[in-house]
Every structure is written in structure tokens, then in C-alpha cells.
UniProtKB/TrEMBL annotation:
InterPro entries registered for this protein in UniProt: Nudix_hydrolase, NUDIX_hydrolase-like_dom_sf, NUDIX_hydrolase_dom
SUPFAM superfamilies in alphabetical order: Nudix (SSF55811)
Phylogenetic placement of the source organism: Bacteria, Bacillati, Actinomycetota, Actinomycetes, Kitasatosporales
Pfam families: NUDIX
Name used for this protein in its record: NUDIX domain-containing protein
Keywords carried by this UniProt record: Hydrolase
Coiled-coil portions: none
The keyword Hydrolase belongs to this UniProt entry's keyword annotation: yes
Xref: PANTHER family: ADP-RIBOSE PYROPHOSPHATASE YJHB-RELATED, GDP-MANNOSE MANNOSYL HYDROLASE
Keyword Transcription regulation among record annotations: no
Cofactor: Mg(2+)
Residues annotated as domain Nudix hydrolase: 17-147
Highest taxon of the lineage: Bacteria
Length: 155
């Protein structure tokens, strides 16, 4: 399914749904941050996705991280809750979603970077190298909050 993200864009269509999603910002002891390159947009992002009924935000973040990157991570904190009304995601099936993301902090405890149906690239990226990657502004904002210590954050 195709997707188009609108970030503070006056051309964004009006949302018709709001679905809780969870991301995980996983950092190694050396400071490297885990990123995946999304197959649907080609942009680099934190691993994450929609919550399943019966899951906690931490469980969702752990599951999504493992599914999308091959890395098993342990939750260690909360980065924030991100739901700016002007971050809209339009899907090719007609769903137009206002983003709602709980971003959990994690540390790696196993696995290895692995591509899959959702991600055609998985990398550990040092903070000084982030400028070399096409990271969507919503993800870059979350990463910057982590790097500057501006968390927990609530939109």
C-alpha cells in the first residue's frame, strides 16, 4: 500500500482516522542509532508501527523493532508522545491518518540488522552522520529530542 506523508503542509488532506502507533529509538553504547529505510517512501526512519489490541506501547515498540530491523531491543524509557495535528499520512486505500506515535527508548540486546518486506535497509548511524540520510522531518524531530535531552516530550 502506498503512503504519502504531509508535514505541516497546507495541501494535506483532512484526516479520517487516528490509530495509535509506537516507535523505538534504539541506541548502542557507542551512540549509534538504529534506522531503517522504508520501502514505501525510501526515507530512513525509526522502527515502528500500529499497536495491536492487547499490546502495551512498550510491547508494540519491541515487536515492531524486531520485525522491521532484526534487532531485539529492551525498553529503557520514554522519548515522548508525538501527535501534531499537521502531521498527516495519506494511504492509497483512502485512509488519511493524523499521526499518533508513542516513542520508546531502547537498548539492543540481540539480533542483527536484517532487511524485510517493510525495510530495504537497516543501519546503525552515528549522530554526526545523520545529515547524510534522508530522514523524514517527523523522525528527525524525535531523534533531535533524544540527542538534545529534550524528553520526555508531549505534543
Amino acid at each position: 500500500m502506498g503512503r504519502t506523508e504531509y508535514w505541516y503542509d497546507d495541501r494535506a488532506p483532512r484526516p479520517n482516522s487516528l490509530i495509535p502507533a509506537c516507535n523505538m529509538l534504539v541506541a548502542r553504547d557507542d551512540g549509534a542509532i538504529l534506522l531503517q529505510r522504508r520501502r514505501d517512501t525510501g526515507q530512513w526512519a525509526l522502527p515502528g508501527g500500529a499497536m495491536d489490541i492487547g499490546e502495551s506501547p512498550a510491547e508494540c515498540a519491541v515487536r515492531e523493532c524486531a520485525e522491521e530491523t532484526g534487532i531485539v531491543a529492551e525498553p529503557v524509557g520514554l522519548l515522548g508522545v508525538y501527535s501534531p495535528p499537521r502531521h498527516v499520512v495519506a494511504y492509497s486505500d483512502g485512509e488519511i491518518r493524523q499521526a499518533y506515535e508513542v516513542t520508546v527508548l531502547g537498548r539492543p540486546v540481540g539480533g542483527r540488522p536484517t532487511i524485510n518486506a517493510e525495510a530495504d535497509g537497516v543501519r546503525w548511524v552515528m549522530p554526526d552522520d545523520l545529515g547524510e540520510f534522508d530522514v523524514h522531518p517527523s523522525m528527525r524531530r524525535q531523534i533531535d529530542h533524544y540527542l538534545t535531552g529534550a524528553h520526555p516530550h508531549v505534543d
